[in-house]
Write a structure and sequence with these properties.
The chain has 257 residues and is of the alpha/beta class. The chain has one domain: Rossmann fold (3-Layer(aba) Sandwich), CATH 3.40.50.150. It is built from ten helices and ten strands. The strands form two sheets. Strands 5-4-3-6-7-9-8-10 form an eight-stranded mixed sheet, sandwiched between helices. A two-stranded antiparallel ribbon has the order 1-2. It starts with a helix and ends with a strand. InterPro entries: SAM-dependent_MTases_sf (IPR029063). One of its GO terms (biological process) is methylation. Pfam families: Methyltransf_24 (PF13578).
């Protein structure tokens, strides 16, 4: 807890808004996407699903394959509490919806479905074909039911470990967006990053969740930023954005969203 407080204070000290950003690509991303006030229909779809989860009385027997939970002490976890405390926040979901629209994402991959709210924010617009991976069968099954209710037929749910799933993906597949929202272990995150590089193209965006979750996650983020194929990174505290655009000058940004 104290580690994250100190990390956030450090983030606030170094972060900027659009002012003082000397990259046209990043400046446009911030002003046209991050700070976009337009209303998107996908916001309503996400709100509908999230409201239903908050009111749900379902309790899931969750098998945690990642670094564990700082919220739950038991594997028996009410859907309402997962939605409230663990799933993607409304603010972040809206940002994801804007990103998908702004970048024109058509194919996406998500590592860590949980109960599906990150998936809904990625694919709720109907324009994205999403493959989402979740090792826990209880949360994966709940998410699948939500996708069916919302008629999000373009979401393919995969109930396997990350390693098993990535081994089955065709090496020729390319994704416009890859969202890594699971495990939260620094060593594992670096391994996934290296494994996922073959699925990118020049304009692919990688998003890493909880980059300041622990010292090991911060260390993995530092390593990712220095990778020779990485050109632009944006630290928004909870999420880390990674761009590979060869035409960009190599730069790292810390931005308040």
């Amino acid at each position: 807890m104290w580690f994250q407080v100190k990390a956030y204070l450090k983030f606030l000290w170094h972060s900027k808004n659009q002012h003082g950003i000397h990259s046209p690509f990043v400046y446009k991303l911030i002003t046209k996407c991050f700070y976009n006030k337009k209303h998107f229909e996908a916001y309503e779809l996400w709100d509908e699903a999230h409201k239903g989860a908050l009111e749900s009385e379902i309790v899931l027997n969750v098998k945690d394959f990642g670094a564990g939970s700082k919220i739950f002490k038991s594997n028996l976890r009410p859907v309402s509490k997962i939605a409230k405390h663990v799933s993607i926040s409304k603010k972040r979901a809206k940002l994801m919806i804007r990103l998908v629209d702004y970048l024109g994402v058509e194919k996406a991959l998500e590592l860590g479905t949980s109960i599906g709210f990150g998936s809904i924010s990625i694919a709720g617009s109907g324009q994205v074909n999403l493959k989402t991976i979740e090792a826990c069968s209880a949360t994966s099954d709940y998410a699948k039911n939500q996708f069916e209710k919302l008629k999000l037929t373009q979401i393919t749910s995969i109930n396997l470990s990350f390693a098993e799933s990535l081994a089955k993906l065709g090496s020729e597949e390319k994704f416009d967006l890859i969202f890594i929202d699971g495990h939260h272990d620094g060593k594992a995150t670096l391994e996934y990053f290296e494994s996922l590089l073959k699925y990118k193209h020049n304009d692919t965006l990688f998003i890493f969740d909880d980059i300041h979750w622990s010292p090991s996650m911060e260390m993995s983020w530092k390593h990712i930023k220095t990778h020779p194929e990485v050109q632009v990174t944006i630290d928004t505290f909870q999420w880390g954005f990674v761009f590979f655009r060869k035409e960009q000058v190599k730069q790292d940004f810390i931005i308040r969203v």
